[in-house]
Design brief:
Strand content of chain A: under 5%
Helix content of chain A: over 70%
Structural class of chain A: mainly alpha
Number of domains of chain A: 1
Distance between the termini of chain B: 88 Å
CATH superfamily of the largest domain in chain B: Glutaredoxin
CATH class of the largest domain in chain B: Alpha Beta
Radius of gyration of chain A: 20 Å
Largest sheet of chain B: 5 strands, mixed
Order of helices and strands of chain A: HHHHH
Number of strands of chain A: 0
Shape of chain B: globular
Oligomer: heterodimer
Radius of gyration of chain B: 22 Å
Strand content of chain B: 5-15%
Number of strands of chain B: 5
Order of helices and strands of chain B: HHEEHEHHHHHHEEH
Helix content of chain B: 55-70%
């Protein structure tokens, strides 16, 4: 494989990785922000009103509360900010803007999620994960495995984004030296 | 023949009388029916009714699956359900239904559930539920539940509750709750199911009252 082909492949993998991760975060945000009484992937689930948002976020707050880690004010702050943060991260990842820093933030966030899930799993809490909104996603071994895969993907995208930026810098630096001097 | 008739007439009459009494009264025959023991007759449906608080037509229904020996259930009851009863059940906004879900890991929880359901049969569920949760650390350590019940029941009521707790009617009522919980795939206690506008959402574990209150206010405003 030529160096150019390798670069092209690396860039395509990076695009696929960031789109997959972005879609994951957009889906997580949608699951938490959609009206709780609507079925997923329906038109009704897109009719988000201030009132439906209040209910959705309080439902999410109760799911955060079941982890028994935060005081009520902490639960309220997290339940009202996390879905918007996930939405912003999803949009940034899909657009590719500020990729290095957004992917780094994504990796850190997923590492925190994984630690919390692991801690709760070993504490014997048989609660709902709440990762994609209300529902009955049990916190079990397969859920943890899925979280490891998400974390690995985020780490791969972060490493890819930093390497890509480095290669581009090197390539840019090489161009003026090859150009004839005035 | 006359000799035979004379010889067996006495015992045959005795057996007939005993058989007739056995059919008429399960208590004489050693049956365990609550009515046969002079105890109040009550069906599982009536026990379920006695374990529910508030008005059935309230806009929100909360079904609580709980275990009297589980510390998290105690926390939910003391910190969340007590204020909920005062603020939402008493005002007709929430209908709260208690379901027993004694877990096998707790040695005395099923016995406590039998006592609670027996107390429901004589209309004293609320007081017994409260004392069972309040004094949980004490009786869960020793298994001695009746001394705690004696603080809220009269000696006659306590005797009735002890006798009722041994009846199949009460034990079936607890088992019906357990069966319902298993059908709903309950994994942990406490688990509450909140129903509003025909939609039901499960919430597993302890929910802090300020958070539940805000959620209830939001769905009531909707």
């Amino acid at each position: 494989m030529t160096p150019q082909a390798r670069t092209r492949l690396r860039r395509w993998l990076l695009i696929v990785g960031r789109l997959a991760l972005g879609a994951l975060f957009l889906f997580a945000a949608y699951g938490k922000l959609r009206p709780v009484d609507s079925a997923p992937f329906t038109l009704a689930s897109l009719k988000i009103t201030p009132n439906s948002l209040d209910v959705s976020m309080m439902m999410f707050a109760m799911q955060i509360d079941s982890y028994q880690m935060l005081p009520s004010w902490g639960v309220m702050v997290l339940s009202h900010t996390l879905p918007w943060l996930e939405l912003a991260i999803g949009l940034f990842l899909v657009s590719g803007l500020l990729l290095r820093w957004v992917s780094l933030l994504t990796t850190l966030l997923l590492a925190v999620f994984f630690s919390v899930l692991l801690h709760s799993y070993f504490a014997g809490l048989q609660i709902n994960c709440g990762c994609f909104g209300p529902g009955t996603e049990a916190l079990n071994g397969s859920r943890l495995l899925l979280e490891v895969l998400f974390l690995a993907l985020a780490l791969a995208v972060t490493i890819g984004a930093f390497l890509d930026a480095r290669f581009r810098r090197i390539a840019r630096a090489a161009v003026p030296s090859a150009a004839p001097a005035d | 023949m006359a000799f035979l008739r004379r010889r067996f007439a006495g015992p045959a009459t005795l057996i007939s009388v005993f058989f007739a009494l056995s059919i008429a009264s399960p208590a004489v025959a050693g049956g365990k029916g609550a009515t046969g023991r002079g105890l109040p007759a009550i069906t599982p449906a009536e026990i379920a009714q006695q374990k529910s608080f508030g008005m059935k037509n309230a806009p929100i229904e909360i079904q609580d699956f709980t275990d009297f020996e589980c510390p998290a259930c105690r926390a939910l009851y003391m910190q969340t359900l007590r204020p909920l009863i005062n603020d939402y059940v008493a005002t007709g906004k929430v209908y709260l239904v208690h379901h027993d879900f004694p877990l096998p890991i707790h040695p005395y929880s099923r016995k406590a559930a039998y006592y609670a359901d027996a107390a429901a049969a004589i209309g004293r569920f609320e007081a017994v539920e409260r004392v069972l949760f309040t004094t949980q650390p004490t009786w869960a350590a020793t298994g001695k539940i009746t001394p705690e019940l004696a603080t809220v029941l009269s000696p006659e009521q306590l005797k009735q509750v002890e006798e009722l707790a041994r009846t199949p009617e009460i034990q079936n009522a607890v088992q019906q709750d357990v069966d319902l919980g298993q059908r709903l795939n309950i994994r942990e206690t406490p688990t509450i199911f909140i129903t509003h506008d025909g939609k039901t959402f499960p919430v597993i574990g302890v929910v802090q009252y300020p958070i539940l209150r805000r959620y209830l206010n939001d769905i009531l405003r909707k």
